[in-house]
Structure formats: C-alpha cells, structure tokens
Amino acid sequence: MFQVRHPEWAATATIYEVNLRNYTPEGTFQAFEAHLPRLASMGVSIVWLMPIHPIGEVERKGSLGSQYAVRDYFGVNPEFGTLDDLRHLVQAAHVLGLRVLLDWVANHTSWDNALVQQHPDWYQHDAAGHLVPPVPDWTDVVAFDYSHPELRRYMTDALLYWVREADIDGYRCDVAGLVPTDFWDEARLELDAVKPLFMLAEWDELYPSGGLSWEQFNSDTKLLEKAFNMTFGLRLHYLLDHIAEDKQPLQDIDIYLAAERAKYPPSVYLMHFTSNHDVNSWDGTEYERLGPLALPFAVLTVLLPGMPLVYTGQEEALNRRLAFFDKDPIDWQDYPLQDFYTRLLQLKRRHPALRNGDTTSCFQRLPSPNEDLYGFLRHKQDAAVLCVINTAATPQMLPLPPETAGSWQDVFGDTLLAIREGDQLPVPAHGWRVLERV
C-alpha cells in the first residue's frame, strides 16, 4: 500500500523553511545564498523556499501580496531575482550537499493569472457562475477544478519545468489534500522519470490544515502511499500548543504517537515543528504560544520520530510575527540559538537510532514520577539517545531504568556521565537533558 521509496540521504535529513522576502534586507536569491554554508554547518539537509513565482495584483492583500497567489507558474518573481539567480542558488546548495524544494500552489491561482481568461472552465464556480476561493478568507485567490484533463496536463508540465530548468530536488505542495490524490500520483511518476524527487505535502490525515474546518478536511487522502515522501505533523504541533496552554496534559504525546502508528507504518515520514510561515504570522511566535516551553518542545520536534523543521529566524530566537503580505526583514544579529539547533540537528544526522522512517529503531517511553516530565529512549542495537523534558517551573528528577546503566555523553553539557542502576537524572526547570550512549 505505501509504495513511496525514500532516497537514502533523506534518512538523516532535517528541513529548513526559507521566507525569502524577509530573510534579508534585499529579499533576493543572491542575498539568501550567503546563508547556505551556515545552514549546512547547522545540520540542515533540505532547504524549502516559499513560492518564487510572480504574485497577483488583483485582490492583492497588503503591499506585496501573498506568495501563494500565483500569477504565472512558469515565471520568477522579480522581487527575488531571475531564473539564473535561482539556478545559481540551487547549484550552490548542491555543492554543500543541500537539497532544494520549491513551494508549489497547485490548488488555486491569483485572480489575474492568465489561465482565468484563457481557460475559465478550469476553475470552480458558484451557482451564479462566479469564481470562488478555496476557503472564504482566501479572497486573493480562486480555486481550480481538477476534473479537466487539460488542467492536469498543464500543471504537470509546470512541475516538470522547474526540475528541468533549475535542477530542484522536489516540492512542498500547498494544501495538497485539496487537490485530487490521483493527480499527484500520476505527476509523481513523470517527475521521477526526470529525476528522483522528495515530495512534501502540506496536509496531515490526523488534523486539518490551516484555514480548513473539520468538514472541509479529508482524513483519507492516501497522499503518502504513492505521491509524497512526507506530510506535516499538524496534530503533534497543535498538541504541543495545547499542552503549553494547559488544555491537555504532557502525557497526551503518548496518545498522539499511538494514533500516528495506528494510521501509518513506521516507514512513513511526518514533519514536526514549533513554527512555520503560517504559524508565525497568524498564530504567533513559539514564544507567544509556548512561552518557557519553546525550547524544550523544539527538542521534542527534533528527537521524537519524524523529520524536524526549522523555520526562518528560529536560530536567531526571533520573537516577532513576520508580516505576511509586506516587506518585514529579519535583523540578524548573533544567532543566539545557532548552537542549540546545531547540537540537535547534528545529533539527528549522525545517530543511527534517530534515522527517519527506520522500522528497526526502537522507541521506549521512560516512566515519569509526575506529569511534568516526558522522557524516552531511542535505540538501535547498542546505539541509544535518551531525551527528557521538564515542563515544570522547578527542577525535577527522572528515575532511570536499569537498561540506561553505562556511559553517556551529555549533548548539551559536553560532559561524560556514568549512570548506575537506580540513579536519577536531574532535569532543569523548563529544561531538557539529551544524552548519547558512548
């Protein structure tokens, strides 16, 4: 049933989302390219660029508009540079061992996309014959109707174009579950015939994507069976928000992991995060939503089974919402969380027990003496990582089971620990401990 083959490099991969418009004062491909070596050294494997296409002007929101209101699928937004600039960025990424995904909006276009005039039948209409947005609030875009084979051919050709012309390595596909799965299944076959790609769907069969109600949500898309390597882990993301708000207990992570395993085999990839472009702009920064648990929960998103995402500015400890429709550049300073993410992502990259989609790696919950601690072991043969977080405002002690006896490296403390049977591990207030068996 689940037939997608993951490339070998993806087993140790971490993904980083680039808000190109606000990444630098220039907001260009060229200016962002200078950051690639830093991201590679941090342990990033995949660079996901938010949409790079020209943006619609009709019904535009804000001064610059949403990057998800595509006016031309074959064009480059001059705000960002040229096609040659994009090619140069991709080549530079490849030299560093990075892969590049383009954000793809297949479900809808801007009102002034030429297709609206050339092929009005390709779009959805209401009973009065008017074009309609996919979601009422998305007033700057209009929805496609994928019952037309000609539209499917056009969209597949557009996807193929960027693989051939810019040598990209895959796509992040916006609200992928609103587009028929058989379109993605067929397009994936043609894309892989050119170059094996990595495909990420903005969807989670366990939780509705942003902007959608439960009624609009399809929990049985089968996107991960043939078309996509990975979907968003939205249910875990919102669970972490709810835990921080005291709406759900920390131990409900176990309920989530059981639901994930009931839905998918261990070989499936889900992407976990504390922020992304939608979350930052509309729900708030991780510091607004998670408060003192922002960093402990970031530890969880990296070390729980799944692929971690880091969003633009998280390594800068960016504590403001970025404007979605206007220029709002980040003022990069001294990257205060660069070391934090580097330690986590490099551990993720090198450790055999943390590989994505590994059916032979074991996840073992560690019993907690109270509701404020959540700890687990991930181990494969003799290799193991121990992780525990503390959501309490006071230090806590975690009793360690006999199988943890031995020598461990403290990933954040740069010290060796000799754990004996019956020992307890101190965990700081609103903190974490990450140990690697040596």
TrEMBL record:
Quick one: signal sequence residues?
none
Spell out the SMART domains in the cross-references: Aamy
Looking up Pfam families in the UniProt record yields:
Alpha-amylase, Malt_amylase_C
Glycosyl hydrolase family 13 catalytic domain sequence ranges: 14-348
Any one Gene Ontology BP term: carbohydrate metabolic process
Would you tell me the protein name for this molecule?
Answer: Alpha-glucosidase C-terminal domain-containing protein
**Organism of this sequence:** Hymenobacter sediminicola
